[in-house]
Each structure stands twice: as C-alpha cells, then as structure tokens.
Amino acid sequence: MKKIRCLTEGGSMKVGVLALQGAFIEHANTLKKLGVEPILIKNTQDLKDIKGLILPGGESTAIGKLLVDLDLISPIRNLIENGLPIFGTCAGMILLAKNLSNDSRKHLATMDITVKRNAYGRQNDSFYTENNFKGIDSTVEMVFIRAPYIESLSPNVDILAKVDSNIVAAREKNMLVTSFHPELTSDLKVHKYFLDIIKEAR
Q1: Of residues 26, 107, 141, 183, which has the active-site annotation?
Q2: Catalytic-residue membership of 90
Q3: With contact defined as beta carbons under 8 Å apart, do 146 and 110 qualify?
Q4: Is residue 177 part of a domain?
Q5: Of the residues 108, 112, 138, 139, which has the maximum number of CB atoms within 10 A of its CB?
Q6: Is 5 contained in some domain?
C-alpha cells in the first residue's frame, strides 16, 4: 500500500469535524489518510486547540437545530470571525451561507453567499462528475447528493468550481464550501486544498 506523506510539520495537526449528524466519519477517515488528527466535535469543549473545522454534509435543518441545542452557534461563529479555517460540504455550505433563496432560516450565516437548498432535486437525482477546481492542477471527483448550489455571491467571494454553469465551490477568506462530497471519493485533493488554507492561517 502506498504511504501518504504526512502534510503536517512538527507533529500531527488537529482538525475538527462537526460530529452531530451526517458524513463526519468519512471526513475523519480522509483526514487520517493525510496524516491529520481528526477531532470529533460534539460540544464546546471539543473546539479547544483545533486548527481548522469541517462541517459535513447531512441534514442541514437537523444539524442547525443541534447546533442551537448544544450552544455551539456562537462559539463556532466567533472562531470563524477570528480567522479559524472552516470547510463546509453540502449541508455545511447551507450552514455557512448568509442567505438561502428557498428557506427563511439562517444558521452560522458567516459567508457572503446565497444558496439554494436541494437545488439538484431528490436523492435519486444524485450524480457523479469530474470537473476543474481553481487552485488544483487537475480535475476533482464530485459526488452530488441532494446538493445545494450558490445562486449569488459578493465580489469578495472567489468562485472555485462550476458544474453546468452552477457555482459548486467557493472561498471567502478562511471559509471554503463545496456543494459536493469529496469525502465520499478516494480523491484527496480538496481536503489537501483545505489543509493549505490552514497552513496559510498559521
């Protein structure tokens, strides 16, 4: 088996993965492959000493409610506003969006994007594709499951990927979002890209 070179220097980097619902185990396993120590975030105490945070795909309404019930909204929002790198996939994109075009609810609301929930339809409308991703030299694998996409964004948000003219990945400062699930493929490139954001912030 080919050994993955550790991407962290001077020991293992700790990256949090919100572990309330959704595909958090898959993200944790991807981080392990990259030599990173995943910290499963279930309460405010778990947020200590992490260098970045991943918000996984899942049910955004359920995750949003649990964030409120566990008093995690303000601590996570404060960390983001103070520069903690954060990566939201699918539902994570919805949690970070300042506006939803087809839902009045807001959650963390830190990223200056307007997102359409379930933009690609139901579960049986899920699909796989490969496409270009700005900042990554080759195409990346993209799995879409009841995925959202970005309908509009402010000028300070950088578009990273589009599929059929729809924005499916973007970055604003320390915040990265994708409509798709890189953790459900063997492609490590998007997670490596996020680790580079963490290194920039250190």
Answers
A1: 183
A2: yes
A3: no
A4: yes
A5: 108
A6: no
**Per the residue annotation, which of 27, 90, 107, 191 is the catalytic one?**
90
pTM of whole model > 0.85? Answer: yes
Positions of E strands within the chain: 14-18, 37-41, 52-55, 86-89, 97-100, 111-116, 127-133, 136-144, 149-153, 158-163, 166-172, 175-178
59 is catalytic: no
pLDDT score of 121 more than 50: yes
| Number of domains present in the structure of the chain | 1
| Domain ranges, residue 178 | 14-201
Q: Tell me, what CATH number does 54's domain have?
A: 3.40.50.880
Residue 126: how many CA atoms within 13 Å on its side-chain side?
11
Total residue length of the chain:
202
Active site residue 183: yes
Query: Which residue in the list 26, 27, 107, 181 is annotated as catalytic?
Result: 181
